[in-house]
Amino acid sequence: xxxxxxxxxxxxxxxxxxxxxxxxxxxxxxxxxxxxxxxxxxxxxxxxxxxxxxxxxxxxxxxxxxxxxxxxxxxxxxxxxxxxxxxxxxxxxxxxxxxxxxxxxxxxxxxxxxxxxxxxxxxxxxxxxxxxxxxxxxxxxxxxxxxxxxxxxxxxxxxxxxxxxxxxxxxxxxxxxxxxxxxxxxxxxxxxxxxxxxxxxxxxxxxxxxxxxxxxxxxxxxxxxxxxxxxxxxxxxxxxxxxxxxxxxxxxxxxxxxxxxxxxxxxxxxxxxxxxxxxxxxxxxxxxxxxxxxxxxxxxxxxxxxxxxxxxxxxxxxxxxxxxxxxxxxxxxxxxxxxxxxxxxxxxxxxxxxxxxxxxxxxxxxxxxxxxxxxxxxxxxxxxxxxxxxxxxxxxxxxxxxxxxxxxxxxxxxxxxxxxxxxxxxxxxxxxxxxxxxxxxxxxxxxxxxxxxxxxxxxxxxxxxxxxxxxxxxxxxxxxxxxxxxxxxxxxx
Length: 493
Ligand SMILES: Cc1cc2nc3c(=O)[nH]c(=O)nc-3n(C[C@H](O)[C@H](O)[C@H](O)COP(=O)(O)OP(=O)(O)OC[C@H]3O[C@@H](n4cnc5c(N)ncnc54)[C@H](O)[C@@H]3O)c2cc1C
Prior knowledge:
The chain is α/β, with parallel strands linked by helices and 493 residues long. It has helices at residues 15-26, 44-48, 60-66, 72-76, 85-95, 102-110, 112-122, 154-168, 219-226, 244-251, 314-322, 358-364, 370-383, 473-490, and strands spanning 6-11, 31-34, 52-53, 78-79, 126-128, 134-137, 140-143, 149-151, 172-174, 177-184, 189-196, 199-210, 234-235, 256-257, 263-269, 293-295, 329-333, 352-355, 419-431, 434-435, 442-444, 450-456. The relative contact order is 0.20. The model has no long low-confidence stretch (mean pLDDT 96). The structure holds flavin-adenine dinucleotide.
């Protein structure tokens, strides 16, 4: 158990924590990181990600700044477009139904490019997300949905690069060390009490940054705050994010903030394990649903699969699946769209059925009312607006007409066998409710005054996401607020 007194203790060792530690170190602070997980399971949810990061950029020159080794061929064959600050603001406002805290959103959007560039300067390398965020149409890739770059090596690569950056700069990381409570003298935070194995010790510091995730891996809190059935959701990522940071801060008078009954949750392999599996990473997700249909146990469709690009619907549709009878659904595709299915549909650990005849197929969909499913498909095939051309790179307006639940884009008849079905349930990613912070990432008390010596970043910050979330904003918010929290903590006296 470490007994050194650091200037700054950072709780956690995911993306937000590393950004905080690096920013504090930049201020000359002596930084200690505490990570509950053993080293082999460390890196939090950040390690489970694809490493996709939402960032504002104004055309190819900005993309080249982030990805200096883009080849001439890539530039020639790609329309990167732009993702301007105004679009990021619009996306945050739209998906959160105008609930997101304007001050936090301002920082998230305005600091996104500079922060990602800063991470690049620390050793994080990035590449464009070909294939998943840009399809090749007529020989050219066109990016859509504001999500253009990812870390080399995905989440594991991101965590490895950040760990390397921290260790090179003398930042100590203590694995298998869980922060238990904050040391607080009634006026300021003076450190944390932590446990490593059987040893509990008080570790003193001038400032503490909490970057230890939400409460998604805590079934009891999920049920308490998100509601019935959330105990049944699968956890997509780390089993270590049990809400400790939030609990520790609330215990000394921090203010709760944000969408405590809301979370990010996606469609996830029905038979996935209770928590994430690092060997599979995010591949249990099933994110090509905009090109097919979804049916529940009653054999009926229940949501608009093509309401928007995947990036703007995937994070809320997990909850919709959880509300279905039996908490599952089947995603259905035919051969016309098979080439658009993401790599995650090719993994071995998958619940998949296939058949050439639609009757046969209907009976293979386990626990689904086959007769009702066949009726759904008949009605579906008549309702598709085949006069509108199909284009996966734009919201093509190829919709259905006259159904109880219409599809707004990318509707195709189901008539090119063999048909394929993939069973999904709800996988929770992270919770939205958390701590109230100010623009220095200082944690506020219930009088909205900063708690001296306490800062927060990442999933446990409340107020940014409500109801839904734009893909890639999690890593970016951890990075932006991690950097701010670290810089504030590193200069705290
Ligand atoms: C499968 C999956 C895919 C995703 N894909 C993307 C993506 O492509 N792009 C994107 O932007 N977002 C993605 N996300 C969301 C993203 O992972 C999170 O928003 C982000 O990584 C959160 O970073 P963080 O640093 O706040 O938390 P984490 O990375 O989860 O780090 C928290 C750390 O705190 C540690 N910890 C917890 N309690 C304690 C304690 N008491 N003491 C010490 N340590 C503790 C944990 O072990 C963990 O290492 C994905 C999430 C998952 C699960």
